[in-house]
Amino acid sequence: MTKTFRIGRRAALAGGVAALASPAVVRAQADPIKLATLTPLTGAGGPYGPVMAKAAASVVEEVNKAGGVNGRRVVLVSEDDQTNPEAGVRAARKLIDVDKVSAIMGTWASSVTTAVAPLCWESKTFLCTVSGADSITLLPHQGYLVRTQPNSKLQVMRVGEFMLSLGVKKVFTMIPQTPFTQSTFDTLNAVLPKGGATHQSLIYDDKKTTYRTEVDQALRASPDLLLAGGYTPDSVVLLKDLYRAGFKGKVVGFAYSINQKLVDQVGQNEIVEGVYTFAPSSAEGSTAYDKVKAAVGSANPDPYTCQVYDHASMVLMAMAIAKDSSGTAIKDNIRKVTQGGGKTVDNAVDGIKAIAAGEKIDYTGASGPCDFDEKGDILDCKFRYEQIKAGKFTVVKIA
Amino acid sequence: MPSYLLFIATIGGIYGLLALSLNLIWGGAGMVNLGLAGFFAVGAYASGLLTTAGQVPIVAGWMAALVAGGFAGLIVTLSTTRLRQDYLAIVTLGFAEVVRLVAANEIWLTRGTDGISGIPGPWKSALGQNFNSVYFLIVVAALVVVFLVVRRIDRSPYGRALRAIREDAQVAQVAGKPVLRFKTEAFTLSAAIAGLAGALYGHFTSYIAPDLFLPLITVYIFLAVASGGTGRPAGALLGAYLVMTLLESSRFFVEWIPGTTAVQRAALKELLIAVALILVLRLKPSGVLPERIPPAPRPATGASS
User: Fold this and answer.
1) ipTM score of the complex?
2) Quick check: is B178 in a domain?
3) Residue B240 falls within a domain, yes or no?
4) Beta strands, E only, B186-237
5) Which one of A120, A190, B166, B269 is most buried, by most CB atoms within 10 A?
6) Number of folded domains that form chain B
C-alpha cells in the first residue's frame, strides 16, 4: 500500500521547481488569511458563544465559496474564552502568536474584552466585541477596536424610558456587581425622576443559590416594577424567589439573561408570565438578518449572533478595500466599509464584488447600520421589547 | 509560536510560584489553604494600585505585594489559630471570596468589576517585542529565588519541625516546638509568595479584575501540587508546568479530532484535562516527584556515648 503513495525524488524536485516558478498569486493562495472568534463556549456566556461562532463561520464559508478575499482563502479559528479573563487571555495569546490571526471577533463578557484588548492593540490585531461596558471604548486602543453593542448608558436610558411608558411610579433595581452596575444606577436615577417615578436599588452577589433576603429587602420598598439586571443563572433563582414572595408588580430584564433557556430552566410558566425583556434590536426584516436566520438555522437569532455575523463581514470587506489582510489594514479601512455613503450591501460576498468593481460601499448589517464613531462605539441602534406570555416571547415593540 | 511559548512559560512560572507557596503550607505544615486565589489577588491589587494610582516604581510595587500578601496571611493565621484541616480550609476559602467581593464592590479603591487596566510593565515601551522575553527572565529569576528559599526550608531543621507539626501537632508541641509560631511564620511566607505571584501576573498582562481571582485558580494549583508531588518543592514546580502544559496542549490536541464542533472541542478539552489528572493520580498517587524525607542527622558520636 505504502508504495503507491511514494513520490520519487525527481517528481518532488519537479514539483518544487514548478511551485517556485508559478506566479506569486498561486503561492499566496496556499497561505490563507486567518481570522478568529473568541466567544464563550463554556461558562456564563455558554448559551451564546456557540451560535456566535457558527454565524462567523457561515460568513467565512460563503466568502470562500465566492473565491475568498484578495485571491486568498480565509480560515476561521474558534477558541473558547470560558467567560473568564484569565482563560481568555491565554486563548487570545494562542490566536495571536500561533495562528497569527488578523482579527479576533465576538468577545462577550466585558472583563474578557478588557483583558484581551491590550494584547490586540499591542500586536496590531483588530478586535470586534459585543461587550457593553462603557469603559471598553475608552481604553487606549488606537483604533484597533470596534463594538457593535450599544454602550450600557444608551441601553439603560432606553430601558428607563420604556419603564416610564408602562406607567410605573416605584422602580426597584436588583443587579449583581458588573462593569455597568454603577452607570445603570446613575442613568436610572437621572431618567426616572423626570417621568415622575422613584428609583431604589440593591446589588447582590451573582453566585448565591438563594435571594430570599434580597427579595425581602426589595419588596419592603413596595415597588410596582422590578428591574432584574443579572445574568441567566442568577436570574432563574431571583425570579423564582420573587414569585414565592408573592410579588405582583411588573418585572423587566435584559434579554441576554431572560431568554428561552431561562424559561426552560425555571420550568413553570406562571413564574415568568408577563416579564418584559429588552435588548438592542437586530435589524429584523433586513436582508442581512434573513441571512443570519438561514445560517444558524434559527427563527430569531439573538443580537450577539447578528453582531458577530457583521464583525466577520466588515472585517473581510475592510481587507478587500485595503488589498491587505493585516490588522492595521482592517483598522484603517473598517469605516470605509460601514459608513460614508456608497452602494448599500448586506453581505460580504456582494460587498467584495462591488469593491473589486471599484465601487464605494456602505454595509448595513444584521445588527443594524453598523456606523462607528471615532472611539469605536456604535452611533445608532434600535431596541426590541418583548413580553413572556404562556412561556413564549411575544414582541411588544421595536423602536 | 516562540512568543506564545514564552507567554505560556511565563504564566506557567507564575503558577509555579503559587504552587511553591501552596506546597510550603500544605505539603510542609499540612495546612489546607483554599484561599490561595485571595492572596494572589491581594498581591495583584496592592502592586496594581500602587503603580497606577500611586505612581510608585514597579519594583516597589512588587515589594508591597510581598508585604501585603504576607500581612494578609498573618491576619488569616492569627484569626484561625484554633482551626485545623477542613475548618481551616473553609475559612481560607471564605477569605478568598471576601477579597474578591471587596475588589468587586469597593469601586472607589479598586474600580470594581471594570478592573484596573493599564498596569505598567517594566521597560515595556522601550523593549517592544522583547518585553515577553525579559519578563519571562524576571519571572524565572523570582522563581529560582523562591525555589531556593523553600528548598532550603524544606531541608533544614525548620522544615523538619514543620513536617512534625503536619504529622501530629500535639507531639510536636510536646517535643517543645512552638507550633503556633511555626504555623504563623510558614503561612505568612506562603501568602507573601502568592502575593508576589499576583503582582507578577498583573504587570505582565497589564489588567486585573475580580473575575480573575475565582476559586478555579486555587483548584488548578491544588491539582498542580497534588500531581507533581506534595511536600517536595521540585514536585510542585513540575506540577505547575504539567497543569499549564495540559491546559494549553489540549487546545491543539482537540483541533486534530475530526468532525467536532467548536463547542464539543471546548468540552473535550476540559474532559481531557480531567482524565489526564486522574491518570496521574491513579498511577502515581504521591505525585510524579514524591516527597523524600531525608534521614534525621545522626547525633555526633561523642554526644551519644
Assistant:
1) 0.83
2) yes
3) no
4) 207-208
5) A120
6) 1
Sort out which chain B residues have CB atoms less than 8 A from A85's CB and list them: 115, 207, 209, 211-212
Instruction: Report chain A residues whose CB lies below 8 A from the CB of B1.
Output: 97-98
- Collect all residues with Cβ–Cβ distance below 8 Å to A266 and sequence separation of at least 6: A236, A239, A240, A272
pLDDT tens for chain B, residues 1 to 305: 788 899 999 999 999 999 999 999 998 888 899 999 999 999 999 999 999 988 899 999 999 999 999 999 999 998 888 877 788 899 999 999 999 999 988 888 888 888 898 899 888 878 877 888 999 999 999 999 999 999 999 889 999 999 999 998 889 999 999 999 999 999 999 999 999 999 999 999 899 999 888 888 998 999 999 999 888 999 999 999 999 998 888 888 888 887 777 788 888 888 888 888 888 888 888 888 888 877 777 776 655 44
Q: Does any domain span residue B289?
A: no
Give B155→chain A minimum CA distance, Å.
35
* CB atoms near residue A88 (< 10 Å): 29
Per DSSP, the three-state class of A363 is strand
Question: Domain of B170?
Answer: 2-214
CB pair distance less than 8 Å for A50 and B247: no
**Is the Cβ pair A41, B266 closer than 8 Å?**
yes
Q: Are B29 and B162 in contact (CB under 8 A)?
A: yes
Buried b (16+ CB within 10 A) or exposed e, A236-265: bbbbbbbbeeebebbbbbbbbbbbeebbee
Q: Are A372 and A379 in contact (CB under 8 A)?
A: yes
Cβ partners under 8 Å of residue A335, min gap 6: A372
Task: Answer whether residue B272 is part of any domain.
Answer: no
Instruction: Name the one residue in this structure whose C-alpha cell is 473553609.
Output: B90
With beta carbons under 8 A apart, name residues in chain A contacting B115.
85, 111, 114-115, 179
Q: Following DSSP, what letter does each residue of A147-183 receive, concatenated?
A: E-SPPHHHHHHHHHHHHHHTT-SEEEEEEES-TTHHH
Whether the CB-CB separation of A163 and A227 falls below 8 Å is answered with yes
User: Torsions phi, psi of A226, nearest 5?
Assistant: -120, 125
Helices (H) and strands (E) in chain A, counts: 15, 14
